[in-house]
């Protein structure tokens, strides 16, 4: 799928100059040839999204069958629209597992899978620690508006749920976020280091109960890939 946006055609300086020289040598005015060049190359939705994905996950591929199945389900449920199917209501996905097993990689891989399938996506991503920092009340900042942007976003990636220190305030924030997405069945990709049995203690019963109903689950296992992979 291609998005409506385009970028300026690229002319590589030295090559363009050489080409102009060759054309002039053959009695052809280079400016008339340049006028016939395509004015713009289309930019795919995936290319646009790549700019928003952190560099480390920009080539992530969802390769866990449950993650691929989730992306398929969301893509199939998409509402038809002029630029391709739009994301609709659907299940959420909880990706759990120890540090470094590839949870964030699979989550961005899922976003890239949807974009690659031509699903029109408005998506946001945040870690829970960043979410707390971003929404902490401070003068001149409308935290409620920021929260609503994330709460209502058609697809939200909530990374590292349960990893940040909690307080009554953070618990309430997480509850409001999860509860809205639960009530409106908005697809949410959640990653966590917490084993299922500890979700309730760490997040509170109200959040854990909603997650139990709204999410499909995939548990990643294996070694910490950061310690086993050759340095990038
Ligand atoms: N399937 C994969 N193929 C290639 N590289 C991978 C794959 N999965 C993960 N990686 C790489 O392994 C490293 C760790 O992955 P990632 O950050 O997703 O782990 P994580 O489970 O989210 O860890 P944490 O719990 O600390 O957040 C990253 O460099 C990531 O790019
Ligand atoms: Mg991670």
Automatic annotation (TrEMBL):
Q: Which InterPro entries match?
A: IstB_ATP-bd, P-loop_NTPase
Q: Name one GO molecular function term.
A: ATP binding
> Does Nucleotide-binding appear among the keywords?
yes
According to the entry, every stretch annotated as the IstB-like ATP-binding domain falls at 93-207
Any one Gene Ontology BP term? DNA replication
Looking at the keywords, is Nucleotide-binding present? yes
Keywords, A to Z? ATP-binding, Nucleotide-binding
Superkingdom as given in the UniProt entry: Bacteria
Output this protein's name.
Answer: ATP-binding protein
